[in-house]
């Protein structure tokens, strides 16, 4: 009898263990770490100690960002402290064996000669091979597990006149293109012809294939992060690249920002299409497009933002229903900690909300606003996702059986518990089905 009882207990323990494992791997969480955050001072400074505290929630950690030399095609760091940050990866890999550490290229941080990303696609086999060898050497030097391509493609052209006005401030190239009445993209380049897009799409497929063939011999991963507002149909041949990519992250955030539409605001990251939406971008549409291209569900991530986007509000709103078409005037001033115009980190949001009027839709997102006051302080309009919005995205990923969620960015979550919800509340909210 004792033997039967022991056998039953062992079987029960095995079943429970398997169920716990099954629970833990329902989907993964990929955490982006902006290495530039180390340069912030005060409460916004993000240290190695802070980074380690997030690791129990992350399956993959992606270090952003490096660039490459436009002349030599060699991988290069983008700020002086990156080398010491990358050196830490060697030790972290031994301490946190459950995590894959990847290095991300581009991410709109590589600002020197941005057209070099197209030139790399058009480069000779010799130059591309030099880029690939440099990338592999860099990964091996710092013991990264793989390379993430946050590739700086051309962006979708928007119909908003306010965008053209804001782009005119970014450089003479854009101004010249507008004067000549040539359509431009958000990088300031004259819009390419359909023929060149088709060629670049093929060239990117070839580059990805070359990278994968080189990296796989070292058992290194290759992923792609599709940055916001990239025209996927013009830039990517999804069926041709899907077998060469270990996973893809769709940046399903920043659908509306004060830089894209200074005079108009909409939800930051809606799942279904919001009513009366003008820009026709939302998570369901992006995900379904990839799935209709037969891209594997278990390789596809959606993104969640730890931050919010802010517009300056000079007078009272005519209507508080989304989308907002009145009273907005470009990016609001940066927060007290991060000092980034048009953006607030999670703790900065928590500090602002008590004095703002708040609204929430669990499927679309949250927003808040504060009118200008008698002290001549400008008002603010804020769009963001709270923990409940993130939980709905968890459920969406689970129901769609996708690979998981990617958080942008660890350094912008609440790393000091200022929101009274513990450390990293947005990151923890991505783990709804693990608890």
TrEMBL record:
Stretches assigned to the GH18 domain: 27-435
Recorded coiled-coil stretches: none
Any GO BP annotation: carbohydrate metabolic process
Keywords: Signal
PROSITE patterns (UniProt xref): GH18_2
Keyword Signal: yes
Gene Ontology CC annotations of this record: extracellular region
Record protein name field: Chitinase-like protein
